[in-house]
């Protein structure tokens, strides 16, 4: 009996031990529960603070703007300060950066109507994501070679238009434009995607547009393309065509549009003349201090003075754009979009197009012998513009009437204004309180030539004369001399 009791006791003890072990492994301890609760509380508090900072950033001015060289699609694994509030974007999109949140994230918005402020990955964060993608892709290749079936939803990670400032450790953003290494990119802007915040996915991706570049030589060092380029906060407007600047037909048509913009966007636009050759403002030179010494050694004093003048003009354009007003540049030396490919201006290029070469010929000849003797030069320049793919231009004004062309331009710029001035984050910009006279005086344009005075006076007389007429007679053909009937060529334009 005693042995039986001992045996039962031992069996019961064994069962008890087994049961207690099962209960221990299946039920977390109080300390584990407490740690989980602490972590969740800290996460919620950090998210609350991030949301508060995000809300405050809406009323802050734009610190700087960037153009993207890669695309980004956020995921839950990206450690976004607030899940679901990360900004997705495609290559060649434009971003307004409000402030730095931490080393991995900025606060800003996609420059598109209807897009709100959110978290944008910093260059450091994008680099880390790219490295993680490359590592996963390498692991996938190794596992596939070993016979395992692996798949990856990651896009291309290899890094690859006219026309972005810097990110610093602290909130000092003033030197941002000079901290980013930049490289040459394509001269056109891809179509924007409608959604600026992507749905949550399990895998984030950093993608670059397919490169059309030729095969790189074996010994040539491949340049690292940064994810962002610093550009002006407002893209400057530059007119090209119908032919060369400095000749009457082109100057008169462009002056007519500048006069329209001045009155249409009164109080919202700054029109300034640029005499320096801003096509020399290549990002690889101006933003890369390591190349300055090489240039100084190989350049004469006069060429250094030219570069200094160009650098000064670029800085002035950036300063004008900080007010978030429209900026129109009357650039004397810019006649083709390719001239601005390698600059950091990212301008809105407006092409004034005369579809018929015969019409342009008659217009040039109608300006007298002084213009007719340069007919061939002007026709060649017009032909080069006509051969450009449409993607190189933001707007093509090919209307037959000045009024229609002005309306087309105004619609585009009104849409751009709404994209850059959302109602939810559009407080009074302190920079706008400074009168534009200060900026204009700092860079006074060169004296207007007698020809330009005559053209503007003639244009005003014609507008006054034709204004009261019927709608079909109100369309003023640029180039009319006095209140007479337009010539056949001018009427065609």
Any overview of this molecule?
A hairpin with a 7-residue loop joins strand 4 and strand 5 (about 120). The protein contains 14 helices and 12 strands. With about 500 residues, the chain is of the alpha/beta class. The chain has a 5-stranded antiparallel β-sheet with strand order 5-4-3-1-7.
Distance between the termini: 121 Å
| Number of H/I helices | 14
Q: Can you count the beta strands?
A: 12
Mean pLDDT: 74
Radius of gyration (Å): 31 Å
Structural classification: alpha/beta
Task: Provide the helix percentage.
Answer: 40-55%
* Shape estimate: elongated
Write the H/E string, N to C: HHEEEEEHEEEHEHHHEEHHHEHHHH
| Percent of sequence in beta strands | 5-15%
Which residues sit in consecutive blocks of at least 5 with pLDDT less than 50?
13-21, 150-195, 433-453, 462-493
**Sheet with most strands: strand arrangement:** 5-4-3-1-7
Taking the sheet with the most strands, its summary is:
5 strands, antiparallel
Short description:
The chain is an alpha/beta fold. The protein has helices at 2-26, 30-57, 123-145, 248-264, 283-286, 289-298, 301-321, 357-365, 369-372, 375-386, 402-420, 436-442, 450-466, 488-492, and strands spanning 64-68, 71-73, 94-100, 105-110, 118-121, 205-207, 228-231, 237-240, 269-274, 326-331, 348-352, 395-397. β3 and β4 form a beta hairpin.
